[in-house]
Structure formats: structure tokens, C-alpha cells
Amino acid sequence: xxxTSLSKDLTYGDKKPVITKLIENDAxxxxxxxxxxxxxxxxxxxxxxxxxxxxxxxxxxxxxxxTHILKKxxxxxxxxxxxxxxxxxxxxxxxxxxxxxxxxxRVKNVNK
Length: 112
Fold this sequence. Notes:
The chain is mainly beta. Helix content is 4%, strand content 50%. It has a 5-stranded antiparallel beta sheet with strand order 1-2-9-4-7. β5 and β6 form a beta hairpin.
């Protein structure tokens, strides 16, 4: 059993979102991404499907040149190899569910 929280021990980065692995099990990795208003994750993609939940705040989620405004409680999933970007319209907490085969480091490298 693993127990963690999306809302405890938050750290906001000065220049870029803060990415933290919360849980890893036999099937998935659960990641928390903490954004300050105006921070973004540049356009990127992965070889695996993902699911993104807006736990708190509001995110502009760009896919195929269309920006979807996602608010607290919204969930979006993407198939593999779909380019996307995220821009925080306000301070936000995002939960990212990755395949076990995907890499947390890949996510951290998006804004390098």
C-alpha cells in the first residue's frame, strides 16, 4: 500500500512547474505537477497513453492547435504520440497518470 496527497507539501517553482512522482505501482506512475500562474510545459509527446486531471486551478491544454480550457475536476486522456502543451491560467495542481513504461525524467525534461 502507498499513501500520499496531491495537496500536501506543495512546492511552487520560480521559473518552471515542479514535478513530483507520488506513487508508482505495477501498472502506472502518478505524478503531481504544480504550476504558478503563467508557467507552462512546452509542446511534447510520449510513446504511451496518458491521463491528466486538473486537481486545482485552470490549465490551457493545447492539442492539435486547439487550446482546451480545463478547470478543477476536468480529466483528459491522450493516445500515444499526440503533441500537447500546458499553460497555467492560475496557480494549479495537475495529476498526471503515466504508463509504468514511461519515464518521470522524460516529463521533467520537457522544460529543460
